[in-house]
Input
Amino acid sequence: MSVILQDLIFSHHEDDTLLNIPRWEVASGEKVFLEGESGSGKSTLLNLIAGILPPTSGQIALLGERLERLNQRQRDRFRAGNIGYIFQQFNLIPYLNAIDNILLAQEFSNKVTGNGFARAQELLEQLQLPESVWRLPGQSLSIGQQQRVAIARALFNSPRLILADEPTSALDQKNRKAFMEILMDLCDAYQSTLIFVSHDPTLASDFDRIDVLGDINKAGA
Output
């Protein structure tokens, strides 16, 4: 299993439990679409799985590692080497160019060896981003170009797990379709597990499994 959550609790305050998940599993190589309404805790759940947030209680086993037993620095290093995270707003550094935004992925990881620029270039070529924009700052890229840079950054370290947080919310229908095709193809190529959260069920058709957060989260049930 890539992900096993057991008796997971996350609370902002003692009397305000946002997530209560008795058990949830994702198999290695599986593509899971996790549907939920805005404000239901989807992004919080991804941040727990990524080790950005610690749980209030419970277990998070990720690729055989118990995240809740690691300190923040250990979780950061584990995330950098094993997880690709595609954020809703892509989170590019606006003044850095496309190549430098991708190279940020190696900052905390010692997984990648060799020429980082060559690796970034390879990914941008796979994603069909023209060389003419590689040196443009992130703020000068179109939304479609930013999404490709964000995917390249997420894949830079050949992650075993990819987390995608509403990454199509700012895209029109044409760009949404292109994004999903690229993401699915690259997950297959890298044999990565994918957890994709969204409130849009029309995106779910290409996934191995569809889960509704309200069904696995007992908080407020």
